[in-house]
Amino acid sequence: MKVALLGCGVVGSQVIRLMAEQADDLAARIGAPLELAGVAVRRLGRKREVDVDPALLTTDAEALVTREDVDIVVEVIGGIEPARSLIVAALSKGKSVVTANKALLAEDGSTLHEAARAGGGDLYFEASVAGAIPLLRPLRESLAGDHVNRVLGIVNGTTNYILDKMDSSGASFNDALEEAQALGYAEADPTADVEGFDAAAKAAILAGLAFHSRVTAEQVHREGITEITATDVASAKAMGYVIKLLAICARSDDGQSVGVRVHPAMIPRTHPLAGVREAYNAVFVEAESAGQLMFYGAGAGGAPTASAVLGDLVAVARNRLAGARGPEESTYASLSVHPMGETVTRCHVALDVADKPGVLARVAEEFARHDVSIQTVRQEGHGDDAQLVIVSHRATDAALTATMEGLRKLDIVRAVASVMRVEGDE
Amino acid sequence: MKVALLGCGVVGSQVIRLMAEQADDLAARIGAPLELAGVAVRRLGRKREVDVDPALLTTDAEALVTREDVDIVVEVIGGIEPARSLIVAALSKGKSVVTANKALLAEDGSTLHEAARAGGGDLYFEASVAGAIPLLRPLRESLAGDHVNRVLGIVNGTTNYILDKMDSSGASFNDALEEAQALGYAEADPTADVEGFDAAAKAAILAGLAFHSRVTAEQVHREGITEITATDVASAKAMGYVIKLLAICARSDDGQSVGVRVHPAMIPRTHPLAGVREAYNAVFVEAESAGQLMFYGAGAGGAPTASAVLGDLVAVARNRLAGARGPEESTYASLSVHPMGETVTRCHVALDVADKPGVLARVAEEFARHDVSIQTVRQEGHGDDAQLVIVSHRATDAALTATMEGLRKLDIVRAVASVMRVEGDE
Which part of the chain is the ACT domain (chains A, B) (predicted)? Predict the structure, then answer.
């Protein structure tokens, strides 16, 4: 079984190492040995983290993926192009493909799935979401007989590391980001992580699998964590909450559409996701019969991601040997994605107000005007420093947003100090 | 795709309900409708939890499983016979089988796997361990490219419920058991659960999959929770630990054999398994590349177990339609199971001692004599009520057992108040 590898970076070099070190085990599990047919790299001379036979290296990725003797292509270069063209070329030749490319799958997964269907090969992508955590296979196969209602998870390790540091040490966002960069948890340009693009791509993939529909990254409502202050974190802590960047894919109450979103949210400290520290990932799945399930583990890193790639490699190799194919993309439900405004959520808001009679009544009236009911109100401080901290009951995001706009216009409200969605309870 | 169901109890009736309610979804996911061909029951007249067309009911299970038109047999009657004969009969006729029967798989799985191989059908059993939690498929497939070193889990909901009650309320074992029975978490005869038989069967199945070897229930070292006292629980609590009934499957340090055991153990309250409350299950998997993974969810119950059964049903139906088979039993590693004495663990012991000079020295000498080193010692109380609480470093279970025997013989030791293994840290 001949394998072409596209990319020899952090993940690719671990794939090469593990294919060599575990060659006997892999052969026994597949029923045939795996052989590295070639490794496509950008430059030939570069020093690599792993020993590779120089004869295997090539800069001509296109020739490699279409070579007659190649059975399986592993793509770990990332990005849209040339990854897409290479994967499509391989699939069109009937080869099977294993990829970790969440950005591509979330932007244009349908092109890849169609190429796989036409070519008759497999397209597997467990490594694209939550690194080593077996999550896509359980969603795609184990829960194939169930009805998933919600997927709620921490799927970006960098932002979880930053938020965890802010929570445990009181650090500012910038200080926590710098620490994450120094430790290699965040990249020099952290945009993809801290602005939620990475998590949004994963949310799109998860939503597609969970709801048997097609969801693309641009349909995902996305907010990052750059605006979160040490005060937000401390205020959440004081109320028994912790702030996490969540990816949430949920069926609407009538079951006819889904909401897919990535944004920071407060969750109760008693929620199992609250205990997910550092760069770990964890995903909650709520299904009608199975109930609540949680999957936890390392969400990134060379070896964990390579573990997921190799698991897929074994599966597609077994399939090829048996002349079979794994499950195809399942989009029969074709649920539409509703806009963020229709999503039902809750909201925590801190208002700097004047401490005088009638203030609470005016504020409460504004909530009522938008049909948002209040769960708890707490006043902190008094006189000029009075702050009202309010947590709402469930309402549409549009109603909550309109309420916030209304509050900002009230003369008794000096400032809206912080607004944050609340998830994971009620 | 015609399905014969064996058993119409708690799980079987949920399978029937879900097959009817989700018929369209299941058909879309499989590519063909599932049809219930018949339901084998012990008595025809009994009132059932679900509406079943009386024409489908039969007491002749053997005729049902070998009927020409049946494609897939779902076995949820449990126990060794007649389940084994029926499954073997079905597999021998080339049918695929989905079973939740942990006892049979752990006692004589090889007979079933061989029948599946010979007949060319699938044998799937996700529901046999940890109910709805997708665990076997991840072990068998997602981690197929990794090297699992340890599986550590809470796989019996009844005992977890009892131990959790003892921990949270200070109840005795008997009171907690009665409460569990009243709530339906424990059976009238709780032996299979509280003596660890159920967990041991699951441990055997997990070990076989994780280590690509054959492990039977009788090779599993098994201790139940009936001897655990409120004092043990309180003492663990005082030290920052909680007592859980754990199933542990671990490779030996040299990688040449595995230890498989079920026994109560103290784990630190900071360990993720410590937070698993009530009747929930959770399993930690430690793999070389993937690192630590955790799977959490409902470990039992009609609907969760039926969810796992239906996931398997969709998978084997897809396989049949494609003329393919899922992964076979993988036992190529053929690791042997070493006896409990060779297992490396740690130990917590509380000794009632006389409070006089030289006592600690004599006790420490006894540990040293067996090459067991001490991690912490704490003396509680004094005078006649002095108690030494000792936690050892890692040592073989044989050495720890010999140390305990030696301590019991010391004249300065009035009594060994409690002995408990410690897992999940160091």
Answer: 348-421
Task: State the Cα–Cα distance between residues A95 and A97, nearest whole angstrom.
Answer: 7
Among the listed residues A246, A78, A223, A231, the one whose alpha carbon sits nearest the alpha carbon of residue A160: A246
Nearest C-alpha in A relative to B326: A319
Under DSSP, the state recorded for A140 is: I
Which two tokens mark B192?
């299979």
B165 belongs to the catalytic site: no
Q: Which residue blocks in B265-340 are alpha helix, DSSP H?
A: 302-322
Residue type, A262: V
B64 assigned binding-site residue:
no
Element (H, E) at A318: helix A302-322
Per DSSP bridges, beta strands A395-396 and A344-353 are: antiparallel
Segment B163-218, tens digit of pLDDT: 999 999 999 999 999 999 999 889 999 999 999 999 999 999 999 999 999 999 99
Query: Rounded CA gap, A220 and A213, in Å?
Result: 14
Least CB–CB distance from A304: residue in B147, B290, B308: B290
Of A28, A289, A297, the CB nearest to B291: A297
Of A422, A410, A378, A401, nearest to A269 by C-alpha is A422
CB contact under 8 A, A307 and B25: no
| CB of B9 less than 8 A from some CB of A | no
Q: Which of B327, B282, B301, B299 is nearest to B123 (CA)?
A: B327
Q: At what angle do helices B10-21 and B302-322 cross, to 10 degrees?
A: 60
Taking only the tens place, the pLDDT of each residue in A158-182 is: 999 999 999 999 999 999 999 999 9
A330 contacts in B (CB within 8 Å)? 28-29
pLDDT at A384: 76
CB-CB neighbours of B137 under 10 Å: 24
CA-based nearest residue to B60, from B36, B42, B87, B84: B42
The angle formed by the CA atoms of residues A325, A327 and A332, to the nearest 5 degrees, is: 135
Mean pLDDT of the region A270-289: 92
Query: What is the C-alpha to C-alpha distance for residues A324 and B325, in angstroms, rounded to an integer?
Result: 8
3-class DSSP state of B116: helix
| pLDDT score at A426 | 56
Distances, alpha carbon B326 to alpha carbons A113, B121, B130, B233, B300, in Å: 21, 9, 21, 44, 25
- Give the dihedral sign, CA A54/A56/A57/A63: positive
CB-nearest partner of A146 from B141, B294, B307: B307
A307/B289 touch (CB, cutoff 8 Å), yes or no: yes
Active-site choice (A202, A237, A244, A356):
A202
Question: What's the token pair of residue A319?
Answer: 């399939």
Q: What is the DSSP letter of A80?
A: S
Domains of chain A in sequence order? 2-131+302-322 (3.40.50.720), 136-298 (3.30.360.10), 341-422 (3.30.70.260)
Q: Measured between CB atoms, does B27 come within 8 Å of chain A?
A: no
pLDDT tens per residue, range A291-320: 999 999 988 889 999 999 999 999 999 999
Say how far apart CA B126 and CA B130 lie, in whole Å: 8
CA dihedral angle for residue A168, residue A170, residue A172, residue A173, rounded to 10 degrees:
20
Give dist(CA B329, CA B412) in Å, integer: 54
Task: Give the whole-angstrom CA distance, residue A206 versus residue A126.
Answer: 11
Residue A96 neighbours by CB under 8 Å, 6+ apart: A71, A72, A73, A121, A122, A123, A124, A316, A317, A319, A320
Number of A–B residue contacts, CB under 8 Å: 192
Who's near A298: CB < 8 A, 6+ residues apart?
A131, A132, A133, A157, A279, A280, A281, A304, B290, B291, B292
Question: Using CB atoms within 10 A of its CB, is residue B230 exposed (0-12), middle (13-18) or buried (19+)?
Answer: middle
